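Sequence only, no structure available. Ideas?
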Amino acid sequence: VNKYRGLFKNSSMEFATKVIANTDIPVFSTEKLEEATEYVNKFRAESEGRSIIGTHSGVFHCDEVLGCTMLKYTKQFANPAIIRSRNPAIHELTDILIDVGDVFDVETKRFDHHQKTFEGYFHGEKTKENENDERFVTKMSSAGLVYKYFGKEVIRNLAEMWEADLGVTQDKVDQAVEEIYIDLYKDFIKEIDAIDNGVSQFKKGYQPKYHISTGLASRVSRLNPAWNVEDQNPDKPFQKALGVTEDEFLAQIYAKLKIVRPAYNVVLNAFENREEFHESGQVIYLKQVCPWKSHLYKIEEETKNEGLIKFTIFQAPDGMYRVQAVSVSQQAFENRISLHEDWRGKRDEELQKIAGLDSLRFVHHSGFIGGAGTLADAIKMVEISMEAVKHKEGSS
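Reply:
I predicted one. Tokens follow.
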């Protein structure tokens, strides 16, 4: 957690200071109303403006622990205390209640999913028309509920604290936040929802060949007091679980904001400037080497230019210019256009002699990638390969 929290230190955001200072959220478990009232009154007197998060007592699970963690990165709940109880009277003392209470109501900030009437899916209401859509297989747990209604604020807050580049206009920022919001649910939060709701990864009748016991839900579960230890107080283990989920959550969202999105921006810039780089408009040049394939397919789809880009050129860390063919789809091995057939599997002097280009280094035997010492020769590799395909198609 310190790795990611440490990046907040230069933030000018008002509530960032609260987040940095609050390394351990106070946690208190009780079923006695008098004890809870005394604790809440004391906490509010000593901590003006701080909020109380309520959740259930007893064995804790990943969904409510992660839900509490995410709330910490909202402005309203930036520096909270947590009361764990199953007493409805104690629930009334809290500012928000998650994973307990048999009520889901956004206005009153009650986020439980255990009631029989609950039919909450992240992507909306399940209907007869979408009942076979995989997006409507997994109901939300308390983690999904918190993320659905607070996730965009959390993304914006962390983006600002980490000074993430989401775009130069508000429309671009809003679009980026929306895309990250959807992707983070699909890649992270949905897993927690599915495990908590008992949704199998496999179709009925299929058994996994091995069991994964190192996921976030398993790591949180192991922090509960063991049955045979003397100290059964779950408050300190719950605090540890908060740290575990915070570390994972920050790592996941940091990757989206500071690793994945910047790479998308590099590819987008290359795509938008493709005609300036090469008159065909079918080649992009990445000014920084980065993961690019998934972003290119996405950008082509967004701009209704599927199949347009045939080659990507970039300078690798070793100084060589790589020319990489774009496959017909993200999952395919077949290229839209491969490097020239005569060059495949050749290297150095042999390749240079055949191609007539002095700085060529190699071409893979499948024709999906090659290398040159100069950008000019890398571009020539593309042009000759594209021309060969045109000639072949014209003569067939």
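The chain has 13 helices and eleven strands.
Hope that gets you unstuck.
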